[in-house]
Amino acid sequence: MNRRDLIKQIALLTGAAVIGSEGFLSGCKTGAKSEAGFTAENIALLNEVGETIIPATHTPGARAAQVGEFMKRFVTDCYTQKEQNAFIKGIDDLNAACKKMYNKSFMEADAIQRHDLLVSLEKEAKPFNQQIEDKEKDLRAAAKKAAKEFDGTPKHYYTMMKQMTLMGFFTSKTGATETLRHIQVPGKYDGALPYKKGDRAWAESL
Amino acid sequence: MPENNTYDAIVVGSGISGGWAAKELTEKGLKVLLLERGKKIEHVKDYKNTTKEVWDFPDRNSVTQQMKVDYPVLKRDYALKESTIDANWSPWASDKDNPYTETKRFDWFRGYILGGRSLLWGRQSYRFNKWDFEANAKEGIGTDWPVRYDEIAPWYSYAEKFAGIQGSKQGLEVLPDGEYLPAMEMNIVEKDIAEKMKEHYKGKRHMFIGRSANITEPKPEQNRVNCQYRNRCWYGCPFGATFSSNSATLPVAFNTGNLTLETNKIVTKLIYDKDKKKATAVEALDAETNKTYTYNAKIIFLCASTFNSTWILMNSATDTWPGGLGSSSGELGHNVMDHHFRLGAGGKVSGYEDKYIYGRRPTGIYIPRFRNIYDDKRDYLRGFGYQGGANRGRGLEVAEFTIGADLKAALSEPSDDWSINITAFGEMLPYHDNKITLSKTRKDKWGLPVLDFDVEIKENELKMRKDMMADAEEMLTIAGVKNVKAYDSGYAPGMGIHEMGTARMGRDPKSSVLNGHNQVWDAPNVFVTDGSFMASASCVNPSLTYMAFTARAADFAVKELKKGNI
């Protein structure tokens, strides 16, 4: 598998094109760059969101892979200004949703509560994204046809968090080498390597 | 540096063609100056991203918003990513410093660095077949190739043996066999699909490992180690397993003691002497200091890349040749070609759950052309081949809304199904009105006129594209692939990065820019041996053909020089 497969898989798992990786079609002309809005607390919270999606098991999880730091970097470098704003606001929205459900902030909630909250956000994000998709379908297609950039309505903040958790984790050193397998210099090729159920998958190549 | 900046030969450009020209001319004893517009890099030492992993890149090898602003052309396709544009490794040319205009969209992906795109190519190495050289004449398209397969075949062998091409002999007229190192292996799914295709089409369609310039046996005489299956060719191969100017031709040229290299030198024009009917010198601009240099030579090889060699000729206009050197036929700048592609089919393959893959193979499979040969006749001319491969992806299927340990476990295993994808590469005919011209208004930061592009695919290509997609779908379906989906991701000229034409060779100075030895009719001591010379495009990757023609032209040039003819 290569990077393109990884992006495709994340899109499939989150039901939306990977934000910040749409290449030609997305992106504003100004090259948005602002780290404003990311606090140490935000990063700690994003690590916990990540850990809820990809927890430590017999191998380290998203927290150990520092997906919070990765999200800060990726949002800053690759998201459009609109998407950045939606993401930052999403952190508050997430806490508000948690308060509503458990009368606690996300950091105060326990592992089961966090899990259930995120599952409820999964269910909320799906129709939310679909609605945007339906509404902007024609505009998006027209932009594509004209080879123009399309800066549409940002997707649900949870979709952003899940996408970056998956990308950040499986491209991290721990994700690629402990949960998955990676060999720097394979030295040979075997196109019929015996495989038994449970053997780890190879990490995507660069 | 010799006195008066005078050399036996000047080679402009250090990519695949320029590297070969420098090697051949220096080996034959000529004192050669190699001019490269990009910066110098040292083989191995400067391949700074070649051992990095994805986690070493802060955005994990993505495209940042800033990169999209800085690379408005490169961002149009896969070429743009963090690992090939960062401060350590940036072989692609800067779009900002090197603008061009588009009467019609043209994606021009350039490599301005020592070694050029020999560091960035896909390494697929195929011979044109005998029909490729005959088709223009038979069909009344463009101009007849002044060369036939039998004449270039020994030069193909010569190029293959030195470069090191892995591949298998197939005994097919449509894709002639060459001199190969042991072939890389198809994986188990590819082998089975190849077998099923062969059976169904009764030996009329074939699928085998893509022939590529990755060595599978060491070449100690060139200090090159065999491929280690990292699939990191684009970052510079520290083993020298990938053929590039940097790994192969330039070291040989330097070892002769006859090569002088000047980097950061943008060749702006050739100085033409109308009494001698020859070009006597090359004028170049230092990209950093803006200082102008003049270098004299008996022969000049233009290998600056398709379009840039033609740009130099166009920018060398004189009273004698107001349209540029080599413009007397009216064909200079015309007949732009590329390979049109980005369509094919893909699907899933079940039944191989107990097999996986070890190693990252730097080539895929190849399905040679089967349309419009023998008794096959279509409503368009020429044909197409396929490249692709099978793979086993990652991740088991999970129920909707699954997160946590179950999701992690499912994503840690390979998927049950394998996947296969094939992409068609089609021949584009040479059309006179597909052209490049010097812009009358726009100049780059050095004050040089930029190129304007006016290129499109036409009816023949559009008809062919229907087959390119439908045939892919049919072949995979017949081979038992599930959920076969045909696709057309859309193509803009240039995306193939196989740009060809604009200084075509021919038999008649009235209809071609070059003769059959790559000599400019109007200035016989000037040779153009990059993709500019191509009279037609075939559907196979063109670099090997540039190598063969460059070596042949260099041999001819030195003989002519010794005879006193040029």
Please characterize this protein's 3D structure:
The complex is a heterodimer of chains A (206) and B (566). Helices cover 56% and strands 2% of the residues of chain A. Chain A contains 7 helices and 1 strand. Chain A is globular and about 50 Å long. Chain B is an alpha/beta fold. Chain B has a domain at 1-49 and 94-166 and 235-334 and 431-455 and 499-566: FAD/NAD(P)-binding domain (3-Layer(bba) Sandwich). In chain B, the strands form 3 sheets. In chain B, strands 1, 2, 5, 6, 7, 8, 17 and 18 form an 8-stranded mixed beta sheet that branches. The relative contact order of chain B is 0.18. Classes of the chains: A mainly alpha (206), B alpha/beta (566).
The first-to-last residue Cα distance of chain A is 10 Å
Q: Tally the helices of chain A.
A: 7
Biggest sheet of chain B, in brief? 8 strands, mixed
Q: Average the pLDDT over all residues of chain B and give the rounded result.
A: 97
Please give the number of β-strands of chain B: 18
CATH topology tier name of the domain at 1-49 and 94-166 and 235-334 and 431-455 and 499-566 in chain B? FAD/NAD(P)-binding domain
**Total beta strand runs of chain A:** 1
Shape of chain B: globular
